[in-house]
Amino acid sequence: MSAANTTATDEQTDTLIRPTLVLNCGSSSIKYALISEDASTRIEGLAENLGLDTARIKHTTLSGEKLEIAIAGGRHKLALQKILELLEQYQFIAVGHRVVHGGREYSEAVRVDDHVLAEVKRLKVLAPLHNPANALGIEAVQALYPDVPQVAVFDTAFHQTMPPVAYRYPIPKALYEDEKIRRYGFHGTSHAYVSNRASSITKASGSHGWLTAHLGNGCSAAAVYEGQSLDTSMGLTPLEGLMMGTRSGDIDPGLHIHLKRILGMSLEETDKMLNSESGLLGISGLSNDLRTIEQAASEGHSDAILAIEMFCYRAGKYLAALSCALPEFTGIVFTGGIGENSAVTRARILDVMRHFGIAVDTDKNKTLVGGAEGSFQSADSAVELWVIPTDEEYRIAQETRAALGLA
Predict the structure, then answer these.
(1) Catalytic positions, please?
(2) Which H or E run includes 200?
(3) Do residues 264 and 191 touch, judged by C-beta distance below 8 A?
(4) What Å distances lie between residue 199 and 156, 202, 331, CA to CA?
(5) Residue 307 confidence (pLDDT) above 80
(6) How many angstroms separate the CA atoms of 19 and 34, rounded?
(7) Which residues contact 202 (CB under 8 A, 6 or more apart)?
(8) Nearest by Cα to 131 from 142, 121, 119
(9) What's phi and psi for 348, nearest 5 deg?
């Protein structure tokens, strides 16, 4: 099967000229988008609950019609086959894959060849839940469309500009040199997109330094100066840094041995607890969804109140610390599901940073929800404040085209 020998209607040809397919294969889901050359048109969808009886594909057509396709028990391979069948008529010219971990080998997006695919598989030691799924996506496209070029866009690549003072851990040098244990950072495409967007719409002259806060079920922050990441909150794995939906974020590294001593917990049990049973869920005892926790907090639930306070305090503290990496501090950008939609959370986080001369326009802040973009600092604020909805798919499509010389 070849993308080049399929046909499309005149309408499809007119609106989806030379599109790029973006695939984001997670551990149990596949998010996808077909984006036109000028980025004005896209088709999107999600395969979810893969491997379960409830596995399904939720697809939105070019005309906006919503389809749901049941694939009970289907895993990544079947889902990818169905997704590619849905999109084959649009003659996509390239496929860009979000790959979670590129180690220190990759500082930019690269065209996939046998070596790159082997490296994606090898690096599963650093991202065991994601890199194997990313490799499956690449192999599925290879099998069905062997002549269509593919590009790996690494979550970690954007943060490869961090200096050693930011990415090295204070551990024996041999672990860094031989085992590549260092801070890598994640959410790179999101931090790259929103910081670039902020620099394009700000009225501030000169060099731009941004603190970018990607807040959702997974959370990370970064210090970005003139388009380069100088520091970030996530490290060797996505567990380091901010408090998240189910992840603890920073924790005393001695906790593992302490829990082994007092409770007999294995390393694997502690790892599962810190990744899947902590964060907002662990503190509230209710949910990893901030909306549910906010509702409970409004009804006086003490653990829900504490979960929100901890989330905001730790985010504000981290942003304050990351400001040290910036030669100049232009402003703060909020993005992600929480960052884009919770005005209260944004305000609480900024309250933690009370020594920075930040002044919030409360009315403007309240309007910036549901995909709205804009600034919400008042006239006397020392730094700018922005809400910018992230578009990782667009950024991946951009980097894919650039890697192939199509941009």
Answers:
(1) 155
(2) helix 188-201
(3) no
(4) 21, 6, 10
(5) yes
(6) 6
(7) 208, 330, 331, 384, 386
(8) 121
(9) -65, -40
Taking residue 254's Cβ as centre, other Cβ atoms within 10 Å add up to 8
Q: Which amino acid is at 47?
A: A
Nearest-angstrom CA–CA distance, 280 and 404: 41
d(CA 377, CA 362): 8
Q: What is the pTM of this model?
A: 0.91
Distances in whole angstroms, Cα of residue 3 to Cα of each of 137, 149, 277, 313 = 16, 11, 43, 50
Confidence band for 9, pLDDT divided at 50, 70 and 90: very low
Q: Which H or E element spans position 30?
A: strand 30-35
Q: Encoding tokens for residue 173?
A: 């040098």
Instruction: Compute the C-alpha angle 298/370/305, nearest 5°.
Output: 20
Token digits of residue 144: 């069905």
Q: Which SS3 state, helix, strand or coil, does residue 329 take?
A: coil
Q: Which residues does 245 contact at the CB level (< 8 Å), separation at least 6? A: 216, 217, 218, 219, 279, 280, 281, 288, 289, 290
**Percent residues over pLDDT 90 in the chain:** 83
For the four alpha carbons of 115, 119, 122 and 128, in that order, the dihedral sign comes to negative
Q: For the chain, what is the mean pLDDT? A: 93
- Give 167-203 pLDDT, tens digit per residue: 999 999 999 999 999 999 999 999 999 999 999 999 9
Which parts of 264-342 fold into alpha helices (H)?
267-276, 279-284, 290-298, 302-322, 336-341
Q: How far apart are CA 20 and CA 29, in angstroms?
A: 20
Q: What is the pLDDT of residues 244-257, one digit of tens each?
A: 999 999 999 999 99
- Nearest-angstrom CA–CA distance, 288 and 271: 17
Query: Which residues fall within 8 angstroms of residue 136, CB to CB, at 6 or more apart?
Result: 25, 76, 77, 80
At 307 the three-state DSSP class reads: helix
**Do the bridges between strand 42-48 and strand 66-70 make them parallel or antiparallel, or are there none, so unpaired?**
unpaired
Residues 6 or more apart in contact with residue 175 via CB below 8 angstroms: 169, 181
